[in-house]
Amino acid sequence: MFEFERGTGSRSEAGHPEGSAIVTLAKAGYPSFQTVDAATFRNQIMAKLVYQVGQSPETATDHDWFMATAYAVKERVVDVWNLSTKENEPSGAGRKKVCYLSMEFLIGRLLSEIIGNLGLTSTVEEALAGLGISLDSLRTFETDAALGNGGLGRLAACFMESMATTDVPAVGYGIRYDYGIFKQSFRSGWQQEAPDDWMAGGNPWEFERSHLVYPVRFGGYVQTRTDSAGHVYHTWCPDETVLAVAHDTPVVGWRGKRVNTLRLWAARAEQPLRLQLFNAGDHVGAQTARARAEAISNVLYPSDASPAGHELRLRQEYFFTSASLQDLLHGHLREHGSLASLPEHAAIQLNDTHPALAVAELMRLLVDEHGFDWDEAWRITTGTLNYTNHTLMPEALETWPVALLEQVLPRHMQIIYLINWLHLEGLSKAGRLDPGRLASISLIDENNGRHVRMGHLAFIGSRKVNGVSALHTDLLKKTVFRDLHEIFPDRIVNKTNGITVRRWFHEANPGLKRLVVSTLGERVLDDIDMLVELETLADDPSFQRKFAAVRLQNKLNLADIIRRRLDVTVDPTALFDIQVKRIHEYKRQLLNVLETIALYQAIKANPNRNWVPRVKVFAGKAAPSYVKAKLIIKLANDVARMVNSDPVIGDRLKVAFLPNYNVSLAEAIIPAADLSEQISTAGMEASGTGNMKFALNGALTIGTLDGANVEISEHIGRENMFIFGLTTEQVEERRRSGGDARDALSTSSRLKGVLAALSEGMISPDDCDRYRGLIEALVSHDPYMIIDDFGAYWTAQRSVDELWLNQSEWWRRSILSTARMSWFSSDRTIRDYVQEIWHA
Q1: What are phi and psi of 91, to 5 degrees?
Q2: Residue 224: what are its φ and ψ, rounded to 5°?
Q3: Mean pLDDT, residues 499-526
Q4: Phi and psi (nearest 5°) for 302?
Q5: What is the pLDDT of residue 86?
Q6: What residues are labeled active site?
Q7: pLDDT at residue 657 in the model
Q8: How far apart are CA 74 and CA 195, in angstroms?
Q9: Is the predicted pLDDT of residue 126 greater than 50, yes or no?
Q10: Cβ neighbours for 658, distance < 8 A, ≥ 6 positions apart
Q11: Of 227, 346, 414, 771, which is least surrounded by CB within 10 A?
Q12: pLDDT for res 28
């Protein structure tokens, strides 16, 4: 097969000889997909159905038609992919390739994104219509790729699409998970987890690269020898080798300008079957090595509650990091001949600490396998690696026990020790090491058992370290990396996150896209900054009506999903109040649920008041071992059952918790939102990207001054948001003062009524004690300031009600939100990375 990723061979090898129409058009700047008419494409779909799917039109299922259409589209993508990797391959000092290492790539469904970016949507629609098939219906038969969990993975997907759009040569590296994190369902309101077998029906977008296989080693011991000149050599003698097999998915940029590669590694055993054991009757034992190896790429974030689970997570992180670096070095040597020039031709971005072992692994590869001396290897490593931090929470800042690293990666532990010693020794000799700071800047945390701080390792081994919002970056400098920042004051920079407008505006909200294009012209699709021109129409009653009509249609669509999935009927003209994100205490779904109970009680006590009808929508998954998060899900579902079945409440309030939140569900939920809940405890959310998606689509934000909410408020105007609660500084002061949550509780009879209802079992009559422990813990220790912020949150929600009654003013602010959000495009973020970090 033609090696797309390597840019080798001639066009004739790909089946398109010099002088062919495709090559002629390509040389003229017109990729082949622009020349396809509907009739030709219809024939191609038919051919793929028969010869690749193996079905006739008479026997084909809807899924068969989807696969045939996807194969036909992929064929068009390959032409552009070849051109991207061959004609635009990095060359010379001015063209770098970006390697983006991430545990997650939450890419969602790809058919709509690809045909939209290639400008093929109308062609595909017409081609399918001629076969009696609706493209809108066909999209639903594609399964979401289960390659991520939340914001980290969706950000990585946005960045990959934006790098292709902005013509940055890039490869995304990750793991090809067989089952993702899990498929979520509810049983009696409790979260249930099942494998998400997302590839059961086949994945039409990927190419398996069976020739791209790299050995990844574990365990064993290290031999040391010294030659006659006194040079010391280390040889790692592992006791296990796992093979990393590459699977490539094309990432198509807007207008098909570039197609980059998402390369995911599948784990395979070096010896999949011990035939002697099998023939001896030990059929299970003969495949033990295979099961152990393939477990690495089975599940995203396996529970680390057990020692085996903890080790598996480490094996996963090293597996994809090692395979990716080997692949990068292999390609660089082939093209440039020497690894000494790696920093001039490649930039590696570590997306969080999961790939932080890249520091030790790149040093190992350079020193042990390619013969560089330590200082030169360190120059190459620190000139190539960059690190993005995504969290300030101590429990989320990865550390690994020294004993586990010595067992699983003994050579890497040696390298980490040496990096740390040289780091501290160098600072000491330069007179920059304050003995009082030794513990805080060392890579080894000596408290509560010896652990390696992966954030510190990534910091020391990287050229640049970035936060993901202005507030987050400032806090990085003051908290997590305070002492390191004082020593290396130019290393930390800010790169505020962004979202791809193609997915979260063009594709997710086609009605709004059509309205904006009809108002501003087609150029807005290429220049999102043109959205600012909508400001002049924010007070226009006619435009407000059109804007509101788009929202109503989106709410009708979401109401239909709620009815079909939950058997709950909601009023689409009600205010849709939405919080969808990973379930975590700091994201404060619990605060939202408590306010929902308070609102229910208020309506119940005074049903004749003119209440604003409201639909509360929740969605999100809790980690399988996160007991409290799962209890919050159960609470939300208990509240939904109570509220939705109460005839006194009627349509004044409805609650819906939609199961199995993923990208496709988000695409239906976000454009339907009137109110976006971004209510994390101030100082705890690094950035957020859901807040950007909602605001771009015109939802008004209720939130704290946390993460990127701060910058969103600066761009769209704080007066167009509902900001409430303690600030970051006030949260820290509250924690330092050791204030008792009972003090705040004593002043709120409303909250006391809510907590009493929970403690006494009114919400859970089948188990009166179910939430007693949750409430007692909240009252005795409230690290997420739920009790402190409840009153301000209730007041802000009543301000929402008041504004909703003034529809003209609501829609004015909604239009301004959309008009002023273009800065939060991930295209802008990528350009910032290119200019200030990657120099690509």
Answers
A1: -150, 145
A2: -125, 135
A3: 98
A4: -60, 150
A5: 62
A6: 390, 581-582, 587, 689, 693
A7: 98
A8: 28
A9: yes
A10: 561, 562, 565, 566, 580, 617, 618, 619, 665, 669
A11: 227
A12: 44
Amino acid (one-letter) located at 807: Q
Please report, rounded to a whole number, the percentage of residues in the chain having pLDDT higher than 70: 95
Q: Which strands sit side by side in the sheet containing 170-175, from one edge to the other?
A: 207-218, 240-252, 259-269, 170-175, 97-101, 346-351, 385-388, 464-467, 492-494
φ/ψ of residue 747, rounded to 5: -95, 0
Measured CA to CA, the distance from residue 672 to residue 572 in angstroms comes to 9
Separation of alpha carbons 185 and 657, rounded Å: 11
Instruction: Provide the pairing of β-strand 653-658 with 675-678.
Output: unpaired
* CA 779 to mean position of chain CA atoms: 33
- Structure tokens of 13? 């090898």
Contact assessment for residue 160 and residue 252, using Cβ atoms and an 8 Å cutoff = no
Q: How many CB atoms lie within 10 A of CB 542?
A: 8
CA distances from 88 to 84, 85, 98, 167, 452 (A): 5, 6, 13, 9, 40
Residue 620 — very low, low, confident or very high, per pLDDT cuts 50/70/90? very high
Residue with tokens 């990068």: 328
* 412 close to 357: Cβ distance less than 8 angstroms: yes
pTM above 0.85, yes or no: yes
Structure tokens at 45: 């779909």
d(CA 590, CA 777): 13
Sign of the alpha-carbon torsion through 598, 666, 352, 702: negative
Q: How many CA atoms lie within 13 A of 542 on its CB side?
A: 2
Angle between helices 541-566 and 807-819 (to 10 degrees): 90
pLDDT value of residue 739:
67
Give the C-alpha separation, 656 to 617, whole Å. Answer: 5
Greater confidence, 28 or 132? 132
What is the distance between the alpha carbons of residues 556 and 673, in angstroms, rounded to a whole number? Answer: 11
3-state SS, residue 346: strand
Dist CA 799 CA 394 (whole Å): 35
Domain with CATH 3.40.50.2000 in the chain: 96-108+144-209+247-265+306-496+831-838, 501-726+791-821
What does the DSSP assignment read for 584-644?
A: -GGGTHHHHHHHHHHHHHHHHH-TTS-PPPEEEEEE----TT-HHHHHHHHHHHHHHHHHH
SS3 labels along 118-185: CCCHHHHHHHHHCCCCCHHHHHCCCCCECCCCCHHHHHHHHHHHHHHHCCCCEEEEEECCCCCCCEEE
Q: How many CB atoms lie within 10 A of CB 367?
A: 21
% residues pLDDT > 90 (the chain): 87
**Whether the Cβ atoms of residue 411 and residue 234 lie closer than 8 Å to each other:** yes
- Average pLDDT on 524-550 reads 98
Q: Tell me, which fold does domain 501-726+791-821 have in CATH?
A: Rossmann fold (3.40.50)
Dihedral of alpha carbons 557, 558, 563, 568, sign: negative
Fold of the 96-108+144-209+247-265+306-496+831-838 domain: Rossmann fold (3.40.50)
